[in-house]
Design a protein that fits this description.
Layout: H1 2-34, H2 46-81, H3 88-120
């Protein structure tokens, strides 16, 4: 009975050992990368931070305005459907017009978000220190 219990657990231990050995190089690589040079984090100047905050607020305002316009259009559309509720053809045309409007609005919002994201990902040009002058103290 004891031999059966040991043999029964052996495949599990072997699997765990093989898994640990397989993941060891990955863990070593991660540890090696983390022990390398740490990136230099430069503080963002207040003027740049203000500009970023203003751009983010502008995007939020545009999205909020877009949502309010969508709600207004939906209300107008719902009211326009009431007289044509029994006419299937008119109802279908109104639905298609609504869908086209939603698609345009979604594309406009996505463009706004893409432009805001792309603007924030532009590389920042940092001034490089000037090389030391050949004429020192003389």
């Amino acid at each position: 009975m004891t031999i059966t219990r040991i043999v029964g657990h052996f495949p599990l231990r072997r699997t765990l050992l093989v898994g640990a050995l397989a993941l060891a190089p990955f863990g070593a690589a991660c540890a090696w990368q983390q022990s390398g040079a740490q990136p230099v984090i430069r503080p963002v100047p207040p003027s740049v931070r203000f500009q970023q905050d203003a751009q983010q607020q502008q995007v939020r305002d545009e999205l909020q305005k877009s949502q309010l316009q969508q709600q207004l259009r939906q209300s107008v559309s719902d009211n326009a459907k009431l007289p044509a509720a029994k006419d299937a053809r008119a109802q279908r045309q109104l639905d298609q017009a609504e869908q086209a409007q939603r698609d345009r609005e979604r594309a406009r919002e996505q463009d706004l978000l893409d432009r805001a994201r792309d603007a924030s990902e532009l590389p920042r040009v940092l001034p490089q220190p000037l090389p030391a002058s050949g004429r020192s103290g003389g």
